[in-house]
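Example 3.
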Amino acid sequence: MPMNIVFLLFCAVLVVMGGIAFVLSRAKATRVRATGMAMHAQPDQYAWFAALATAGPALLVSALGAFALLLMGAEIPTFYLLAASLVIALIGLIMGLNKVRPEFHARRAIEGVIRKLLAVAAMISILTTLGILLSIISEALRFFQLHSFWDFVTGTTWNPGASFLSAAGRAEGGSAAQFGSIPLFAGTFMITLIAMLVAIPFGLGAAIYMVEFAPMRVRKAAKPVIEVLAGIPTVVYGVFAALTVAPLVVDIAGLFGLDASYSNALAPGLVMGIMIIPFISSLSDDVINSVPNSLREGALALGITKSEMVRNVVVPAAAPGIISASLLAVSRALGETMIVVMAAGMRPNLTANPLEDMTTVTVSIVAALTGDQEFESAQTLSAFALGLVLFIVTLTLNVVSVFMIRRFREKYRVNNL
Amino acid sequence: MNDTTLQNFQTQQDSSTASEEAVRHYSDAPTPDKGQPVTRNESIEENLSVRVRDLSLWYGEHQALNDISIDIFANTVTALIGPSGCGKSTFLRCLNRMNDLISSVRIKGLVEMDGHDVNARGMDEVALRRRVGMVFQKPNPFPKSIYENVAYAPRMHDMVSRKADQDELVERALRDAGLWSEVKDKLHEPGTSLSGGQQQRLCIARAIAVRPDIILMDEPTSALDPISTATIEDLMDKLKKDFTIVTVTHNMQQAARVADYTAFFHLGDMIEYNATKQMFANPHTKKAEDYITGRYG
Amino acid sequence: MSQSFEEISAQLKKRHRRSARMKWMTMGALILSAAFLVVFISDMVVRGWPAFQQAQIQVEVSYDEQSQKLPLAAVDEDVRPLISRGFFRPLPRKMEDNPALMGTTQTQWVIADSRVDQYLKGNEDRLRPADKETLENLVEEGRADLKFNTTFFTTGDSKMPEMAGIASAAIGTVMTMLVTMAVCFPIGVMTAVYLEEFAPDNKLTQIIEININNLAAVPSILFGLLGLAIYISFFGVPRSSPLVGGLTLALMTLPVIIISTRAALRSVPDSIRHAAFGVGCSRWQVVRDHVLPVSLPGILTGSIIGLAQAMGETAPLIIVGMVAFIPDASFSITGASTVMPAQIFTWASEPNSAFAEKTAGGILVLLAVLIFLNALAVWLRNKFERRW
């Protein structure tokens, strides 16, 4: 029999058994209640408990078995596993029925199970983080066994293409794979810098205008526009950067007699900045909004003009929150992939000229994992090493930003007495 | 009001007997000259500071002030009292146009200061607020150092050019606010590190550093403990030598202690305006009397 | 002592000018951001609009023995080069399926070659002079024209631009999103319910909370690395399948759903919980019967926004191989598949410029879906939002 039919059959039997447990225990509970005995729970609750006792342990056992089968390579025949599960289900059914007694707290038992289920669900986010960490770290460690960590951190040449040659023992003069990540990080920081130079002034400016100057109507109209901007997928921004902005940059640079590459760093930087504007503006909007109005009134009552108030009182008061928003934005820009994959170059290039093409960490990760490479090759593993660095940097930025926003909040709780 | 009159006044209050002086101008008739207090406080030589005539204010459709007319005299303390929601704070905020910050507000009537209608089109509200300072209910020091809190506005107004002048101005304002001895060693700590009462005095120092003509105080002691309250009440008494003070208070005892004149507001109307002694000893109107004697509040 | 209003106002002039300048500058920032949106959308519309049109040619198709063997023979030699190879290829199969066609000659509109299409749209001229002449004649006779491009919505990817469509990517997106939501909606809501209603305030809870916030800020590409290392190499989930893509996106969307569900649960006032406790409900009964029903619109709104976000995501899917070339739509969740943003990415990297309009056309379709989803979320929020 094919696997999925067996599986379906198993599920059907379980459902039927659960149903039987439900009906029988309900009938029993109703019967007991009809005799006038006071029970600790409703018949339905006994019924649910019995159904749970039937299906729950059986599912758990089969899931554990399947896990062992897949991962540990344990040799348990599927048929025995399912049969054992069904036996457990039968035991559960009998016990569940047996538990239909007035002094049994069926509701409490069910809620205990529900509570545990919810807690297990909550643990999944932890598992995800652990999964990311473990998968990246273990692969990265394997990479660092092949190539020195020091070369990775300080090397200025990124040339993974030749790695299969060296793996085949054909590393001939100068063609050996090199994994110096500095050009990648230089490219990433260059593009991030350009993005921030666009996003911070515009995002912050828009937020200040919306909170401090704009009439209600403008605020109401502008908010959805900014939300739409935030909802545009990054691949779309990538197309825009590659097809529209990059040629434009080349043309404009040409007007000034400059020679720009079609995969220059400026185009993805600018478009990434535009992508991040709504992010910064909505976070700053929240932060500026939460600066207490009493500070604004205090400044205005001294005969301070509105813009002086904004510049000297509101913005400094909101500064920790604004910095925190900007750090989050930097972390986003560092990890942004599609725009740079589509619009930035593939050539690792250590330069300070944004009109040249350069590549980034995320581009290299994508490049390393989309070729027809063996999973074990140094190039593939290098993606995980880069991913590890990216994870550490973005995590640090995030933690610092959370710390700053918390200080901002505490400050104003204190100040409001 | 000096200390002796204050004491006298309190004795009057306690014994609930009207002094001879208080009954002199007693009359049940409506105020003859609208805006003038029913009884002038003759212990003070009065110059008109602000003249308000038929001031009405609406929040959207809701009328919050109803034809208010009042004269506020220079170098006095005028207290605005009344049950909450009576419009006293709203009225106070008309004097430095703080109500401009609320978009739905509509104002009609005259608020005249130094020969100018403050609501006139040509009046610059920033200039107005430089001459009419304000202290708020909750202390709101800027998130800057104590020194900067005081020095900031004078520097923006180009009142000082040299660092030494600025230091002197800060010291003087802090001395006037009675805070200097407490903070002189920690001028560069954040203003928010002070206690509530100290913060409020810092806000007063901040306001007087600009040398305004009038200082508005919106329930300045309601968020403070009794000792800080007493300090600030003393301060108000000292400051009226240099400034005109208009204070809103929900605390009638405070009005009785510090004010030369008291105006009683009720549901957007100004019911009675009188010398404080007169107001508390022998109010003209039933509503004011009921409020003062605690029938409602 | 104090200055007159006139003096002060005179001093203030310069400061007011500066104040106005700041207002205009910040306003400019907002206007430029909005202007960008306009430029961007109009750029995409101008580029993408042609994708919804396709050149078609009216020809006489003869279904006979010869064209069964050699499909090109079905039409006249002159127009043959103008017609898409995508039309000829399925001809024998069509005749097999429908024997009644055999021996007939029918006049029908058929899909023209991409070069014809591009020529008629005025983009580029890669036709041979002789073909061009034939085409001009056909146009004059009204037998060659641009018509609504149904192919774009009914077929999958193709190496022939005129045959390429968004359908298989759309189906891939639907399958992937089904997997994503099936996994992350229950887990997300359960986590949020646990954290808001059940969790004791201890270290573990705090760690979970911090962890969720951090997870929300992890670059999406790292989820791709997780999917590759754990799902594909460790668990052996088939590469390029909606299953692996959906599971990867589920982990990415989880924090969004948890955070918005928690906000929705928190907006339910405690008075409701207290009232329910007061009539003897247990904690779970309070949650199930009172808190969840009133916060459901908020939860749905957050989930739709999370769904829209996952639908536009590309980077982690590239890593798990969902940029496959998928000519035929498949409803399997374990077979190779692609999604709309990945399809856009594939087309964008095609050197043939006829794919540029497909790229922009795909973007318009994707944006339309996303805007619809966001509008739905806003509508839900406005319709059911309660002020307590």
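Residues 1-72+82-114+258-297 of chain B form one domain. Chain B has a mean pLDDT of 84.
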